[in-house]
Amino acid sequence: MPANDVMWPMPLIRFPTLFPGMTGGVPGTDNETGLRSHSSGIVVYVDPNAAGVSDLRDGTNPEDPLLTVAAALLRCQPYRGDVIAVMASNAWQYGEPNDGFILPISENVVVTVPGVRIVGVAPASSLGVIWTPASNGGTCIQVNACDVTVEGFCFDQGTFAGCNAIAALWNGTTAHGDNLTVRHCTFTDTVDTAIALEFAWYCNIYGNQFEACDAYGIYVDPAGSGARFCNIYENIFHDCAVAMALNGVDDTRIWNNEIYNAAAMSGAAAANQGIDITLGQRDMIYNNFFSCILPAAAPGDWDNFNSSDAALTSAWVGNRLLNGIAVTAPT
Hints:
Layout: E1 37-38, E2 41-46, H1 69-74, E3 83-87, E4 105-106, E5 109-111, E6 117-121, E7 129-132, E8 139-143, E9 149-151, E10 153-155, E11 164-169, E12 181-183, E13 186-187, E14 193-198, E15 200-201, E16 204-206, E17 209-211, E18 216-220, E19 227-228, E20 231-233, E21 236-238, E22 244-246, E23 249-250, E24 253-255, E25 258-260, H2 262-265, E26 275-276, E27 284-286, E28 289-290, H3 302-305, E29 315-317, E30 319-321, E31 324-326
Parallel strand pairs: 2-3, 3-6, 4-7, 5-8, 6-9, 7-10, 8-11, 9-12, 10-13, 11-14, 12-16, 13-17, 14-18, 15-19, 16-20, 17-21, 18-22, 19-23, 20-24, 21-25, 22-26, 24-27, 25-28, 27-29
Antiparallel strand pairs: 1-2, 30-31
């Protein structure tokens, strides 16, 4: 599912070097193989498991990768089409340690380069390249730039307590996380908040798997500036504490998501643990699948599990429940 759908801008081919001879004594610049560029941008490789890996390398060849994503970001430029390719590892708890590629990405990075793509290059059957925070309660990727894409990773807390995976944040002045794309990623059951949006418009979140996230799958702080014009589709939310808390999200489309909740499934209370758009307006929520029953004034039913905007300006159309199709907005 997630990693085998990673979308590269062109095939991973090898071609003769465009950089003959070592440049400035930097390791990797004299290697004759490797995809070094696409369009006008560059491909920068990151692999903490590579022999002799260092952030002092060139990074544009897979045989001389960098140690950290943070160092790779320093080599990227705005809207040049740069890609950071993070190589696969066996850091997952069910991985094969005998292969030796056991180190995950363990960083809290802040992305300030607009237009950059951060891609986990994982095997076809993998959950994604493992990424853990570098501190207790750390956020793996904080996005303070427009048009950033994150794909092909499995976010997990690793050896630390708590993990917030991705946050697209407005810094209060000029840095926004607008147009963020998160696709084909896995968020494990050790993640607290998988994706947080703060004043982030036109975000695209699709093809991800949210596995029993401790706090939220997708979260917007009701005390913050909200989000708008987002597309959230074809994701799996499996028993997250709250699948989508989208307070103050306007003009957003939510479709073809699968939302399972053990409490709602068993008829227990599950207040707003599905989709909550209480403070939003003009949203479209359609063709989603919920493990709750039609409105029945009961714990875990349609009205208990979800909430619409107070003025009922949003449209809930053709959503599938355990015992039929909902024809009303949840209240």
